[in-house]
Amino acid sequence: MNKFLLILSGLLWFVAPMVSAQDSDFGIWTSLEVKKKIFPGFDASFEGEFRTRNDVGTIDRWSAGVDLSYSINSYLKLGGAYNLINYNHPKREWEVGHRYSFYATGSYVWNRIELSLREKYQQTYRVGVSETASRANPKKIMRSRLQLAYNLPKSKLTPYTSVEFYHTLNNPLGNDLEKTRYTLGTEYKINKRSKLDLFYRYQSETDDEEDDGHVLGLGYSLKF
Predict the structure, then answer these.
(1) How many CB atoms lie within 10 A of CB 208?
(2) CA distance 123 to 113
(3) Spatial CA neighbour of 103 closest among 74, 67, 75, 136
């Protein structure tokens, strides 16, 4: 735990100068996940998440979701999820969203290094939001995430880094890259059933309704 707190302090020292030197926003994301193995290879999980923005001064969103996944083998996992999202839109105030997603994750482990690629199809229907000549509802996105993780020997820490691209699929103005996420973090294994996840993330947005932003995140996961 002392090592984890040391990394937390290091990330804070790393993030603070970047935030102060930029015009972009800063927020904190927290999450709680409970996962249950139904039978070998098949898992179900529930996750709640809370986010802030405007330099932590405004609630950005809260959400709750369920996820089902099946590991076909050690290289490939398939899954699907539903999320209920309550989003504090900068221009339209609060709006409710129903999000459905399906994904496939391919991974390869060499020694203590794991390289993974996740492809996720995501569809979000926003209640009470009308389609216009420049806005689709539901909004369809394809997300591609490449991640590299390293399991430190004789340690409970697994640092990782990733990059994720969001491509629109039904934008009336034309499909293109909408968002890019760069993440640097580490997992800390508390025991066989639980772990913490600490990360720093930078989001680059092309959507005029969203701002670029820095994020500091902390998640807790419990597995039965």
Answers:
(1) 7
(2) 32
(3) 67
Query: What value does the mean pLDDT of the chain take?
Result: 90
pLDDT digits (tens, 9 = 90+) for 69-83: 999 999 999 999 999
> From residue 30, how far is each of 39, 59, 117 by CA, in Å?
29, 12, 24
DSSP H or E segment with residue 100: strand 93-110
Could you tell me the two tokens for 192?
């066989």
Asked whether the whole model's pTM tops 0.85, one would answer yes
CA separation for the pair 96, 128 (Å, rounded): 8
- Residue 172 neighbours by CB under 8 Å, 6+ apart: 131, 132, 133, 134, 135, 136
Give the separation between CA 183 and CA 220, rounded to whole angstroms: 17
Amino acid letter for position 28: I
